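Appendix B: complex inputs.
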Amino acid sequence: MNEIIESVKNLSIGFNSQKGKQISILRNVSTNIKKGETVGIVGESGSGKSTLALAMMGYIKQGLFPLKGECLFKSEDLLKMSSRQLEKIRGRKIAMIPQNAGQALTPNLKIGYQIDEALKLHTDLNKRERDKKISELLNKVRLPSPETMAFRYPHELSGGQQQRVAVAMALAGKPDLLLLDEPTTGLDVTTQAHVLELLRFIAKDTGTSMIYVSHDLGAIAQVSDRIVVMYAGEIVLEGPARKILKEPIHPYTYGLLKSIPKLSLSGLPASMPGSQPQPGSINEGCSFYDRCNLATDNCKKNSPDLEHIKELDTNVRCFNYKELINQNNNLQTSITKKSNNGEGNEILKLKDVSISYAKQKFFDQLLNKISDQNPTVKDINIDIKKGETIALVGESGSGKSTILKSIAGLLKTKDGQIKFENDRILSSNLKMRNPNDLRAIQLIFQNPDESLNPNHTVEQILSQPLKLYFNLSGEELKKNIIDLLKKVRLGEFYMSRYPRQLSGGEKQRVAVARAFAAKPDIILCDEVTSALDVSVQAAVLNLLQQLKEDLGTTYVFVSHDLAVVRAISDRVAVLYQGRLCEIGPSQNVYKFPSHPYTEVLLGAVLEPDPDIKPKLVAEDIVEEKPPEKGCSFQGRCPRKIGDICNSEVPPWQIGENGNAIRCHINIEELASLQQ
Amino acid sequence: MLLLILKRIGLGLITLFIVSLITFVGVEVLPGDACTTYLEREAYGAALDACIKRLGLDVPAYERYLDWASNVVRGDFGYSLSGEMPINEVLGPRVKNSLVLASVSILIGIPLAIVLGIITALWRDKLPDIMISTITIFSMTIPEFISATLLILIVAIWLGWLPGIVIIPSDATFYELLSNIILPVVAISMIMTAHMARMVRSSVIQVMASDYVQMAILKGVPYWKMVFRHVLPNALLPAINVVALTIAWLLGGVVVTEVVFNYPGLGRLVIESISNRDLPVVQALAIILASIYVGINLIADLMTLMLNPRLKSLQIRK
Amino acid sequence: MESNLIIKDKQKNKLEKAFEILKTMASKPSGLIGLTIVLFHVVLALISPYIAPYDYKAISPNTMLLAPSAEHWFGTDSLGRDVFTRTILGGRTALTVTFFGSLIALLWGGLLGIFCGLVGGKIDDVVMRVVDAFLSIPWILAMLLIVSLLGTSTEVLIPALGFFYGKGIVRVARAATHDVIAKDFIVSARARGHSNMSIIWNEIIPNVRDAILVEGAMRWSWMLLGFSSLSFLGFGVSPPTPDWGLMISNARGLMSFAYWSVIAPIVGLSSLIIGINLTADAFAKALGIDRSTKAPV
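Resulting structure:
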């Protein structure tokens, strides 16, 4: 158990900047991987975690080069090996499971061929044995019908299936060490939980050591024995998983854990100020200095070493770590928010809304009607009260963003009405809406890289709604822009910056400012935090909440992340395949009884706590279309009771907690089943 | 799949139809008609009347178009003005000669371009790439008539190795042709190869940077096996269409090259018929050259359809 | 007063940006060489009428086919005209015709392309089909036809070249517009209720401009190639206007004993085309666009 498989010693990796300066993105990293152990490497984007993982396979990305140090695999330095020698080790001794299997599988080669290739390279089996082995492997990763699977092309599989194929491929060479680079990022919540479960099973089954790289402490918590925390190219904390997650003694890890929204907490997570420094920008002192609330003058001038603390079996890079020992009780707290319990008037009503993506047939086009019997989104009834935050939650394909777009007038509804203020019907055609209605409803998008015009300065971006709606110009315009920037906590000097000169969090703040520039009544938020790092996400969530409390804005908040929704929303609507499953005040939706789909979703959430394991109750199959009859969740429901689910649309039932559930099972029965 | 192929063929035919309209209308709207243009200062009296009669210019334009188009569909391009002989007879040997020249150039050019493109991509920014890329920039930018002229000056005049001008009748046999076309082929394929090599290079570089190539490396696939199984099929597939467009565009270069070497092909016929203001021949040439263009692009489309696994699986599902 | 200041600020910003791009272009040897060559040719074209030592059309039987000497640096041609004079003046014609031609190509190609990208659907299909059809007539045939029927004056050549080399720009502009239109910032502007014109002007044009300009730079070098081919075939500008293609064509037959009269225009033309090409390449790289994947159509 204590045999060391791979050890990294004082590794630094960097690149040459355009000005000819050497900039390191990994600095003095040392760590050991023991046999049979799973090590989680966690860090935000740009922390150097992927570079470290790839270096552990002797692979350095183009443009980068090792500055010093070594990667010893069984006491041989991978970084000094010839490519011939590396070919013998890669796939056979160390195998990789990539982040995005959809792009990591060669598109022109069949699944079977790609696994066979690994077998041919790394085993002595003959053709017959290899064929047998391929279906064995496909079986092991729990892919359906392994016989035909081998003859399919990567693009014919779903994301989860592709990821399983990548796992099978990695297992083909019976490696001693498996490297996993964000293997579940980009998958749906339930699929993610299934893939993680599979990985845990494989680790136990084969006794392989694993290095699990991820930004997601929730996923890391589920699989790791030991955790390495990276920040700005350095290891800042390293130790047993339980210790790191429950008693973090580095201020960054502490802050990171606090900034993750948790299902058990209803308030907003505490946020960390600032963002990770760019590579090459740290000259002296601790790299976490300007975001740290324990920082002293010493931290500014001297950079701390990685110190081993025997009694905790932990390495930490901090001068003041002692202040954090026994502070763990504070981890389970959150900022309480003023919640809106539905006192206000209804401001927006969705009545029987259906939306179809089907192309109009020729005759229908002539008659100007849509005849799709099975539209993407159907029968949506939601009343939104002034000042509340209502969240639409669901996996990809649930129609949550589609509904948002039709509220904004970007998508035509097939049936139903959208009513705004005093039951006035809003046209589903953008061009027919009056300017004041357009002003009243604003959108914030998922990815600020796409939603901000790269050719405009922040000033130009913010002046657009101000000019359009309020006809401002000159001094007044400028004053308003500065005010807006102040509202989202950005300084005046940001006015002349271009989006590419801002960090992800700053860009999203500008997007928020642009939405608020219109002085809107309703803001539609489309996955606004999912492109951001966790510590930045918390800051944006807090900002949104603050603005809402100050200005009384109503939010319609779309997200796939149940913990984020728990933190920000007053009310939650759960969607599956474009149909509502459950709707109610958020503290109640997160309690039982729940709709079976909500139950599945809640069970699959990964919490940054090794003691809370996900519950897998339903298969993670992908359905391409909603069913034509009956309950939308019939295909995957773990509590399906029979034909009635296939033939009849379930009725709404209201529980004593106040949440409405659409299910054929009696709500009290559901409650007792779920206890 | 079959439907897709038929659709592509249909689109090609539509393109040809529009081309025929453009050339016909183009000739109509330009000042003067075929007869006045051809006869120039003698365009009066009996000569003009005879010409108008012969070309049927006395009937309305749309009737003439229909008449002409239906004949073209049957493969009959009518009569040339200058030689007063069927255009088909004028065209026949010329088409053959040009085809020989173009296909030899393509047969040499494409494989060479692929090899050069791969070499430059795999040794990116190293000596082989820098050398080959510099040469391709030169041969890509220098017009055919300059490279042809220089070739004649150096190889034929100063060194005296090969004949500088092609002196063969337009109905020469295939073997007579071959010995004469070395220099023209070099002149044409230089620019074409350079263009295609650059495209192959950037396509290979793109694929080399993809996640699946990194994955193949990390799987322990030996370098050359990775190049042949994982890189090339994916890199060359999108290049097919672009290569087709290049070939079609470079047909223009064939015209110039044929003139420089005095080669009896379509290209020289283009110049001759335009100098003689022989509009019926020009129209015929436009249709023929456009068909070649459409044909090459159609072949490229079909090849992409056959080789792309994404489209292949479309066929299985349907 | 205040808004005046803002405008000034913006102009400065634009100038700075242009300077920045130039600096990036010149930072690589190939870009620097390209820029230098183009600059040299442009300057030469501007000053050549004042520094030309002889009259470009002065025919003299006494000075026929003289080899290069101190008096005639590049020798003389078959009509006794000074090759040096005609070579430095030849660049003027080539640059003027192709520069204005490219401008026309950029204008109509860019506008039509953006229009097609915007409207999409059936109109887009039809327009692109027609553009494709124009594309399938070899440019040289079409150009020759136009020139032979309308004459070889620059008033005909410039728009004709501009028309034929604009087709490719249509495709590029259309593709770029398609890409931009799907972006969230356009969706955002639409949802805010900006007018179509304002979206085109503020959001789309700034984001497709780079791609179109690069394409235009590329077209310029190809147009020069096409134009000189036309002159070479005798369908370009009419004699005795000094023109490189024409000079090469005239001197070609005599090159076995008077190679100088063909070498000078060849060097002039080749260097200009290569220069423009290198510059276009460096320009594309400075703007972050890979132009080598595009077909020269």
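The CA atoms of residues 21 and 229 of chain B lie 46 Å apart.
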